[in-house]
Amino acid sequence: MLAVILMATAGVAAAAAVIDTINDEDDIPLPPEEPEPQPEPEPEPEPEPQPEPEPEPEPEREETVRGTAGDDEIELFSGQTGFGLDGNDTLGNRYEDSVTVYGGAGDDLLHSGNHGAAAGGEGNDTIDAGFFNEVTGGSGDDLIDTAHTSEIDGGSGNDTIDANGHSTISGGSGNDVINGGWESRVAGGGGSDTLYGGRGSTLGGGAGDDEIHSWASTGARSYIYGGQGADFLTNVGNASLDGGAGNDTLSFLDTGRAGVLSGGDGADEFNIGTRGTRSFSPDDAVIIARIEDFDPEEDVLVLNTGDFIDWPVYDIVSFETRSADGDTEVLIHLPVSEDNPTGQFDTAAILLEGVRNFSADHIRLVNDGQEVEPVVGDDTDEAYSSTVSSSYYTFGGDDTVEAGGIRNVVRLGSGNDVLTATSQSLSVKAGSGDDAIVWTPAEVSDQSSDIRLGPGDDTLTASGDNLLIDSGQGSDVINLPREAGPDIEIWSEGGGAELTIGMQHKVAIYESGDQVTLNVYPEHLERGPALLELHESDITDLSVALNLPPDIDGPIEVTREYDSSEPQLERIRYTFSAQDGTDLLVLDVLADSEGVSADNVAINRNVMFE
């Protein structure tokens, strides 16, 4: 029982201990409770913007600014007007538009931008202005420089004006120098002025002895008027020149647009230069200048070459005259080069309106600044020669030319011309007529020469050496006499030619009908054989005479051999040799040639040569 009581008591004690333990655990701190969310504070209001202080107003600029009696420096702004008054003033503003400046007395420096105005007043003023300005120099020797599109009056004094185009300019009294630029209207006024203008300009010298220059190679035509006085007018390109009253000089350089020239009253000089119009015939000559009032009684025509053209001129220019509809055409002729290998030449025509009586007395030739004697061809039988130059040119008419010196360059025209040459070297191009040419060089020379015959039936006797002859298309007679040198070659292209040759001469034959005579002079036997070379297989008509002197009395041996000197063409060579083995003639034909062989050669013995 006691045990039961003890166990019960122990159980009560244990339960009490548990309760104490639980009570002790209540003393342990619990985690804090989360605070309730608080509302966000309202943002503070931004401060109201404070108004900016108003800027202080700029001081108003006076519309008119006046200087003093001293040397003022005044800067002007757009819309202002400035007066320099007395003194040497610096006035205006080059970089402000709509500025008006008046220099007043003194040597002033004036600046104006665009759309402004400037007046120098008394004194030697300098004016610098932009576009669209009205400028007056006033009295004194003024220096004026503006951009284009301005109106300028230099006033009295010797002024210098540079306008840069599209402007209207008056120099006023005095000896002025004015450059108007392109498309300006320039009046020199009184005095002896010097004017310059570009394309599309109108330049007038006015009273005095003026000098006027214009360049208008392209674009609109320029008009140049000398006015009264002895004026000097020059133009490059497209222009009309009028000298006006006085003894004037009008110079014109052709650049592809024809010029119109009028000298006006007085004894005038027309100076014409050309770069030439390349052609193969003078009939293609283009009119480069038209002279409206050339007076043969007092005017003179100057043909100027070397100072103008842009390729070398080795000899002088020549000319011819021809009439058409009551006018006279003067043809200028220049060689393209010294050797002129292509046969080109340069021709241009000058038309003299209403002129019928024209001669060489009315022409001067100038080459590289040196005056030379002209070589003339016209419609007469009169002979002309020159000891100054070595170039000779004729065109229409039956002309006679005598050519001497060291080297001659000769171009014959459409007439039946006669040429006698004694030069050491010769270059000839015959025209379309039946020409007669004799070349007997006074001295032997190693210089090469060439003679090119034309389409006419020409006659040639040539005693020179190192010579190439082109027979042309006519039925020509070519004679190489005993005195001719060994190195001569003939191109026979026309057919029907009569050719007399000697040892070592070569003939290239291109057409049928030629008659060839080979004179074997005893003193030439050491030269080597002559060569006849056929270049067409259809040549069927060829006559060859082999003339032998009495010294060669044995049989003539003919050998036949094949040769391929021309690519792709088989050839046959017939060689004619004397008994001692000396080769006299080689006939070289195409293998398929019909009708030409050794049988075409006739041998003539015991020929007595003169």
Describe the structure.
The chain has 610 residues and is mostly beta strands. Among the domains are: 64-147, no CATH class; 402-604, no CATH class. The protein has 1 helix and 54 strands. The chain has an 18-stranded mixed β-sheet that branches. It has a 15-stranded mixed β-sheet with strand order 2-4-6-8-10-12-14-16-18-20-22-24-27-31-32, with no helix packed on it. β52 and β53 (583-590) form a beta hairpin. The longest helix is centred in the N-terminal third of the chain and has 24 residues, at 2-25.
Question: What's a quick, concise take on this entry?
Answer:
This protein is mostly beta strands and 610 residues long. Among the domains are: 64-147, no CATH class; 402-604, no CATH class.
Question: Gyration radius, to the nearest Å?
Answer: 50 Å
Portion in helices: under 10%
Strand tally: 54
Q: Return the structural class.
A: mainly beta
Overall pLDDT confidence: 81
Low-pLDDT segments: 1-19, 21-26, 306-317, 336-344, 368-390
